[in-house]
Amino acid sequence: MLKGEVIIDEALCQGCGYCVKFCPRGCIAITGDKFTPQGYLLPTVIKPDECKPCGFCAMVCPAAAIEVYKYETEAVA
Amino acid sequence: MSEEAKVVTKQRVAGRPKLLIRQTAGFVYCPGCHQPLAARAIAEVLEELGMGDRAIGVFDIGCNSFLLGLLDIDAVLTPHGRPPDMATAIKRTYPDNIVFTVQGDGGLLSIGADPLLGALTRAEKITIIMLNNAVYGTTGGQMAPTTLLGQVTTTTPRGRDMTRTGFPAHAAEMIATFRGVAYSARGAFDTPKNYMRTRKYIRSAFQKQMDKVGLSFVEILCACPANWRMSPIDSLKWMEEKMLPEFPLGEFKNVDKTE
Amino acid sequence: MGERMFIEGNVAIGWGAAAAGCQAFFGYPITPQNEITEWFAREFPKMGRIFVQSQSELGSINLVYGAAAAGVRAMTSTSGPGWSLMQETMSDMANAELPCVVVDVQRGGPGGGPIRHAQQDYFQCTRGGGHGDYRNIVLAPASSQECCDLVQLAFYLADKYRNPVVVMSDAIIGRLRETVEVEKIEFGPLPDKDWAVKGKANHKDGKRRLVEHAGDLYFRYPNYRALLQSLQQKIKQMQEAEFRYEAYKTEDAKLILVAYGYTARVAKEAVNMARAEDIKAGLIRLITAWPFPYQIIKDKAYQGGEFLVVEDSLGQVVEDVRCAVEGRAEVHLVSILDRHIPTDGGMILPDKVFDKIKEIQ
Asked: Which residues, at least 6 apart from C326, have a Cβ–Cβ distance to it below 8 Å?
């Protein structure tokens, strides 16, 4: 079972919205109620279970504010 | 009977390249500006090639100058327009390093025309990277050589008019006509697909230098939301609708030998 | 080296630069220094060193910036109009603290001017020449031998202070053939150029190096004032330690001539003519035009001396002399308008200077 995790660094995020636009599954959205310390609109991962992870959000982020992780869980006999 | 246990492995899939410096206080780019993606792409390519320790970046005055704070390589800031000269001197001094310039469209094609022609005619084995956002960004959005017809800038308040100020300049096509040029391409950062394509172009350009073939050039279309007076998402749309038709992407020259 | 040659000043520059370990020369054609560029084009490739003919003087000085940033001894040479083009980058190199040597073989001006000799670039060389607060050390050779020796001193001082140094020659000194003994001069140890960009693999600590000139990016200094204080301290150190001049028959002189370059040789001849008629004249020949030797001139002024400046311009050195005497002495001038003929081949000749000496008496 694959799971992805997207971590957005609020100290670096500038609220440009590119990660929102380019997530192929629409996992990220700007909900309008979260802000970075600098006052930018901070996106939220609204559908964490749908994350592939593909890493596109990290790639298009000009501030390099996004880290993406892949989790693999294995059943061991 | 043994119990079932779950082993969870965590692997980093994507994130900040090692050569990309994390700046909080010093990060000056406007939200949605594509220029820092150039630093990211260069960092990723240098890491792929294992050349981070043998790379020297030569940065022009302009928004691209701030990239030298983002890349963990030896770097030089030059007077406006001059990087091809410094890069020439540095490459001839340390030929085993990848020596590349990062310049804007105004820096390269306007005030930088003299050094550009010098490097092209002498076929210097450097890589020139031009970030094309169709304006002079750092100074507030004046007309640049690549400004589109009809584009409103602070010095073309009624839109660029061909009868007064000519036509947008096409660097990648022009540079491809020089015999000493081994590689000339145009990419863009507006979509993930184009980012990956442009990263490949940068890698090819650096490889030409490592193979000592000739001068390599990569033009990259970049959004400038602040000076286009648009939101970042709208500036992507403007790139797609206006810039890409004017400045087609692709490789205009790719040779293994210059003659 | 240690070779004796019969060569012109321009060519002596080349041999001196090679002796100093100059690694890179960049130049653009301009009269009257083409012999310098052509010497490097011939000799540097033979020595395995870098020669590039640039696309303009802008190119020349910016190529020098690059090579200097890479930590090698680099130089260019030019004349007045090209020297003007170089000023932005001279200012940038002063901020970035890059060592380099620039030779200005002066010709007539202003503007395109005649391609023959003059001494009109003094202000531009000694006042920095470009925008902002900085100074170049300016060395003024008056012979072919000095061309060879002073260019070596120039490289040493440039590295010592991490500052550009100008060798201010002129078309006469540049084209005059004299006997030169080309010998490598030892000046003493200098620190490693640990600050230069070479690729991280070439740095012992593996950390990256940055060369920049903007001043507002605060990579080198915490703020603007710190940068300015550092520049001022450097200027002060150079002023105190690096002024050089030749005093000829000045011990008992009541009339002191002040000159540099070819007019210093003319002035020396005029001093000899004066002494033959028992006139107590002497000469202070500037070897460094900057730092200017204010103290010796001030001392002579306070001792009751009078001054005659001999320069092939409308009057530039004379202002520094007037400043140095602090109102205590008369300062006279033999200028470019006193040349022997009105065409561009005119020169200030010893006869004219001697006439002026007699007039002053």
From this structure: C298, C301
pLDDT tens digits, C88-147: 999 999 999 999 999 999 999 999 888 899 999 999 999 989 999 999 999 999 999 999
Its pTM stands at: 0.89
| C-beta atoms surrounding B110 within 10 Å | 17
Q: Please name the residue ranges forming H helices in C191-326.
A: 224-241, 262-275, 294-302, 317-325
Query: What CA–CA distances, in Å, run from A16 to B54, B91, B226, C344, C349?
Result: 34, 37, 11, 66, 74
Taking only Cα atoms into account, the Rg of chain C, rounded to an integer number of angstroms, comes to: 21
Q: Which amino acid is at B245?
A: P
Q: C71 in helix, strand or coil?
A: coil
Is residue B133 within 8 A of residue B99, CB to CB? The reply is no
How far CA C174 is from CA of B89, C12, C157, in Å, comes to 27, 9, 22
- What CA–CA distance (Å, rounded) separates C123 from C201? 43
Tell me the two tokens of residue B117: 């022609």
Q: Which of C25, C49, C63 to mutate to test the interface with B (most CBs of B within 10 A)?
A: C63
CA angle C165-C166-C168, nearest 5°? 155
Which residues 191-220 on chain C approach chain B with CB closer than 8 angstroms?
197-203, 206, 208-214, 217, 219
Is C281 within 8 Å of C268 (Cβ atoms)? no
Number of Cβ atoms within 10 Å of the Cβ of A74? 10
Q: What is the DSSP letter of A39?
A: S
* Amino acid sitting at position C91: S
Q: Which residue has the higher pLDDT, A23 or B6?
A: A23
- Residue B1 — very low, low, confident or very high, per pLDDT cuts 50/70/90? very low
Quote the CA–CA distance of C35 and C176 in Å, as a whole number: 12
According to DSSP, the residues that pair with C249 across neighbouring strands are none
Residue of C nearest to B54 (CA): C199
Determine how many CB atoms are found less than 10 A away from the CB of residue C226: 12
**What b/e sequence results for C294-310 when a residue is b if at least 16 CB atoms lie within 10 Å of its CB, and e otherwise?**
bebbbebbeeebbbbbb
Helix axes C87-96, C57-69, angle to 10 degrees: 10
User: Which CA distances in Å does C48 have to A39, B55, C76?
Assistant: 58, 23, 17
How much is the ipTM here? 0.93
Chain B CA closest to residue A53: B13
Question: What does the alpha-carbon distance between residue C97 and residue C95 come to, in Å, rounded to a whole number?
Answer: 5
Do residues C177 and C61 touch, judged by C-beta distance below 8 A?
no
Distance CA B219, CA B189 (A): 11
Return the pLDDT at C220. 84
Q: Biggest alpha carbon distance in chain B? A: 86
Tokens for C218? Answer: 């605060």
Cβ within 8 Å, pair B89-C26: yes
CA distance B68 to B23: 11
Cα-based angle B164, B166, B167 (whole degrees, multiple of 5)? 145
| Cα three-residue angle C28-C33-C36, rounded to 5 degrees | 80
Rounded to a whole number of angstroms, the distance from the CA of B59 to the nearest CA of chain C is 9
**Cis peptide leading into residue B248 (ω within 30°):** no
Planar angle of CA C105, C106, C109, nearest 5 degrees: 150
Strand partners, C78: C104
Least CB–CB distance from B85: residue in C62, C72, C206: C62
Residue of C100, C96, C88, C186 lying closest to C136 (CA atoms): C100
